[in-house]
Amino acid sequence: MPADAEAIAEQVFVALADPSRRAILGALAEHGPATATDLADRLPITRQAIAKHLALLAEAGLVLAKPGERRRVRYHLQPAPMQVAQQFLAALARDWDDRLAALKDLLGP
User: Fold this and answer.
1) Which of 14, 28, 49, 106 has fewest C-beta within 10 Å?
2) Helix, strand or coil, per DSSP, at residue 67
């Protein structure tokens, strides 16, 4: 896997490590684009905390901030970084599957 893909996957894993950020991504996935205020109304997280989490999610490329009506910024999910992380995990799984199959063959029935 290219180094830049590993860096993207690492940012995704760091972002997903926090339950609040996972909740924000879940809310965006379920309800579509939203402002930080919308998210604060839906989640048990303060608007200020949501803003900080959204900044980290944007840095990881998982959300994109787009100006909306009345200068309100709406956050949209961006699937590309998640797909890179999924490919990273799939490659790891293949490596382990091959090793475990070789071990099974070595140990016999």
Assistant:
1) 106
2) strand
Q: What is the pTM of this model?
A: 0.80
Strand partners, 18: none
Contacts of 106 (CB under 8 A, 6+ apart): none
Neighbours of 13 (CB within 10 A): 13
Q: What stretch of H or E contains 46?
A: none
> How many Å is the Cα radius of gyration of the chain?
18
